[in-house]
User: Fold these one by one.
Assistant:
Number 1:
Amino acid sequence: QVQLVQSGAEVKKPGSSVKVSCKASGGTFRTYDISWVRQAPGQGLEWMGGMIPIFGTTDLAQRFQDRVTITTDESTSTAYMELSSLRSEDTAVYYCARALPNFFDSWGQGTLVTVSS
Amino acid sequence: DIQMTQSPSSLSSSVGDRVTITCRASETISIYLNWYQQKPGKAPNLLIYAASSLQSGVPSRFSGSGSGTDFTLTISSLQPEDFATYYCQQSYGTPYTFGQGTKLEIK
């Protein structure tokens, strides 16, 4: 079973960037898709994008194309999601999840990002 | 983008009840439909994948059915730990999209 452990909560100013990490243990990191899903307070789930380390390809939802960067470090089995130009509407819990590839079977614990001046 | 619509948005039921939640896709998605359970402050947990396949470790009281555009999640006999929010998700194509959620509450 894969375990995903995310970095801690962040408080950011509008216009700044945040980088959330997701460290995997178990399984073969380089072969599976890591996706990022966010959930605004009291709201539903929103897929932001994903990456397959072995291919080095990233697939992003169109609304995040110009603000999200997803990277991986195979040497540490860690995935990263950077969101730039933060605004208050980006306040949410951000989850990483493993896709197999058509369903998310393992999830990180979530990282709360608060955007506030 | 494929829109996913769940109904009802909320539901009050009692322990032992049989509950059905429906999910409709805005276009055909074959069987690329997954169900998740989420409890407050926790990450979602996969219950059903490919419309009707039970994820390992998930109790058999959970079942899924459907194909094309219409899907259902059924809980045959509600247990206290089942009160949570349930989401459907299509994996037919990106961007993957989720339903708005169904909150299952204790009557």
Number 2:
Amino acid sequence: GENVEQHPSTLSVQEGDSAVIKCTYSDSASNYFPWYKQELGKGPQLIIDIRSNVGEKKDQRIAVTLNKTAKHFSLHITETQPEDSAVYFCAPDNDMRFGAGTRLTVKP
Amino acid sequence: DTAVSQTPKYLVTQMGNDKSIKCEQNLGHDTMYWYKQDSKKFLKIMFSYNNKELIINETVPNRFSPKSPDKAHLNLHINSLELGDSAVYFCASSQGGIGNQPQHFGDGTRLSIL
């Protein structure tokens, strides 16, 4: 099975700053790399994903970058807003082995 | 329309009781899952069903028994509840087999054992 590590475990930024969360995985055969956002009292929701034939994908303030050689992918959030505060999870190949989560706090 | 719905949202019960959590998805997906999330937010897979057939059972005690009457429903029955069962349980679904499709989660059932 996949070993998944996520860093940092907590991240606090000022509103307007950027935030980056990194996910490292072990299975070189992985080819699907999603990021989920979990708000308080809700289930995780997919916010962006990337497949192994692409190195970067962007959706407004959110982007995901993939480095298959180094086996890691990262979530980038620019111009952070208080509503970005949540727990973020990576789940390479949706192998049901989620990262331990990163709690992002955006201070107004 | 809620895509993946779980009931109940909250469940408070005594140790030793038996309880069930229901899950329904209206997305037409053929794979469904149950996850357990502990107080530290670790999400751990418990079961996965594809077209009503069990495909993953991740070292879950026999007291937990999933049932899938059809591919839109995956219910979870728990016997002889223990204190350590207190957690939030999430149902999810995806199209196709496990792997390269997004999962859609319900909003969870918070189970508290007294």
